[in-house]
Design a protein that fits this description.
The protein has 9 helices and 8 strands. With about 220 residues, it is of the alpha/beta class. The longest helix is centred in the N-terminal third of the chain and has 17 residues.
Length: about 220
């Protein structure tokens, strides 16, 4: 790494990758214990280390305690199905894998894994660091900027796509910082967050393209 090349920091959204791996792979087991999520997560981790060659790696995970979102909106994620019984024990095994690579784990009661990712990415802003967020969903696209990209699983666990600012604009027609307002307008069924009645993806995009922010829409 030269003096002009920024260090590469990989931020792993542990819960998102575990869930994506579990649902992308068929049931697997070792000595009677379920391992499909562990196998998928480890495969993605090895691919990231091999291809991205990061200087630093951090993994973040959710805790069971309610978050500040549950306190503000009691119905947050109320429709999410219960975590499958054969997935629950795999989280500890995934963390064992992470620790085996000497990767630090960040968890904080009241916050989700991607909240911690956003905090870490913000903390290193202004440093000579390029952040690459590894996740299984697109909520973190709002964090994309000149120093931060999102690498997400497109299909299964091997097909990935990287989002920089241009890729976000190309797919959604919006700037990364507009993605939170986009979700606010159209809603987010996966998290049971209601949007504005009658506003879907196209209307939300049109409104934000014209007015910029939810506040300006109002």
């Amino acid at each position: 790494m030269s003096a002009k090349t920024p260090a590469k920091l990989v931020l792993i959204d542990g819960n998102a990758l575990v869930h994506r791996s579990y649902h992308a792979l068929p049931p697997l087991s070792h000595q009677g214990e379920p391992t499909n999520a562990v196998y998928g997560f480890t495969s993605v981790l090895l691919k990231v280390l091999r291809e991205l060659k990061p200087d630093y790696v951090v993994a973040t995970f959710d805790l069971a305690a309610p978050t500040f979102r549950h306190e503000e909106f009691a119905e947050y994620k109320a429709h999410r199905p219960k975590t499958p019984d054969d997935l629950i024990p795999q989280f500890d095994k995934v963390k064992d894998v992470v620790r085996a690579f000497s990767i630090p784990i960040y968890e904080q009661e009241g916050f989700e894994a991607d909240d911690l990712i956003g905090t870490i990415a913000d903390k290193v802003k202004g440093e000579k660091v390029k952040c690459i967020i590894i996740t299984g969903d697109l909520d973190t696209l709002q964090l994309v900027n000149g120093n931060t990209e999102v690498l997400t699983l497109k299909k299964g666990i091997s097909d990935t796509v990287t989002y920089d600012e241009k890729a976000v604009r190309d797919r959604f027609g919006l700037l990364p910082e507009q993605m939170a307002d986009f979700k606010g307008l159209k809603g987010d069924p996966s998290d049971n967050i209601p949007g504005v009645p009658g506003v879907g993806d196209k209307t939300a995009t049109d409104l934000l393209s014209q007015y910029g922010t939810v506040e300006e829409v109002f």
